[in-house]
Design goal:
alpha/beta; about 15% strand; globular
Length: about 230
């Protein structure tokens, strides 16, 4: 699908390394968006990357923030997470003055939250079309993590304690289909494509830990002034 490591150097090079105002260099908030194939270790990479860079991490916890902001039931939103809206199957909003399916409502709320968070802090975020939502920002590093199918099968077998390669393969295909449908429904762009990505990386070639180190090194070289979490947080 990709070469072992594919970097869009022009995209990264064109992103400024300093935020300058009135001749004074200031710290900046950065966002690392991570799309991933099922079983590629993308979520694990994102979590460890946030820890090593000392920045925020958003994944399913964003759903709880969306629930707080909207007043919608958290359990209902979790069921709609990263699923494309289906006019025949998806539940609809019934509150006065609101419209669309629960899936649509969750996407709109999460989009607003992601933009708000990007103004306040640095963070790593998994999925949720974040690369598309923040496409106008210059302080983002957009990554897609992939891996050979045989390696993904082994990871899924370990995760769900499966014995059958075929069962694991079907789960991978199901989840990838769901992610593809979700991404392409809300962005009108091809999921898994290098378009709009700064880095596409095979996690199996480097291993999870080395992949994290590589990405962290890129971030530190590009944005040495990035904002970290307060020690008190």
């Amino acid at each position: 699908m990709y070469k072992t490591l594919k970097m869009c150097y022009n995209s990264i090079r064109n992103k400024a390394t300093k935020a300058e105002y009135g001749g004074v260099f200031m710290s900046r908030n950065i966002v690392i968006t991570i799309g991933r194939e099922t079983g590629s270790g993308g979520r694990e990479i994102a979590k460890k990357l946030s820890q090593i860079l000392n920045i925020g991490y958003y994944d399913k916890n964003l759903i709880d923030l969306a629930s707080e902001k909207s007043g919608m039931n958290s359990a209902v939103l979790h069921k709609a997470d990263e699923k494309a809206s289906n006019p025949f199957l998806s539940p609809y909003i019934t509150s006065p003055g609101e419209y669309g399916t629960v899936n649509d409502r969750l996407f709109w709320i999460q989009s607003s939250l992601i933009k708000e968070l990007a103004e306040k802090e640095s963070f790593v975020i998994v999925g949720r079309c974040a690369d598309y939502i923040l496409s106008e920002r210059e302080d983002c590093l957009n990554i897609f993590v992939y891996a050979p199918l045989e390696d993904r099968i082994e990871r899924i077998k370990d995760r769900y304690m499966l014995e059958s390669d075929e069962v694991a393969r079907k789960e991978i295909l199901r989840e990838d289909k769901q992610r593809r449908s979700y991404y392409q429904y809300y962005t009108d762009q091809k999921w898994g494509s290098s378009e709009g990505k700064d880095l596409c990386i095979n996690s199996s070639f480097f291993g999870v830990s080395k992949t994290v180190e590589l990405i962290a090194d890129i971030v530190r070289k590009r944005w040495p002034d990035y904002t970290q979490k307060n020690d008190e947080e």
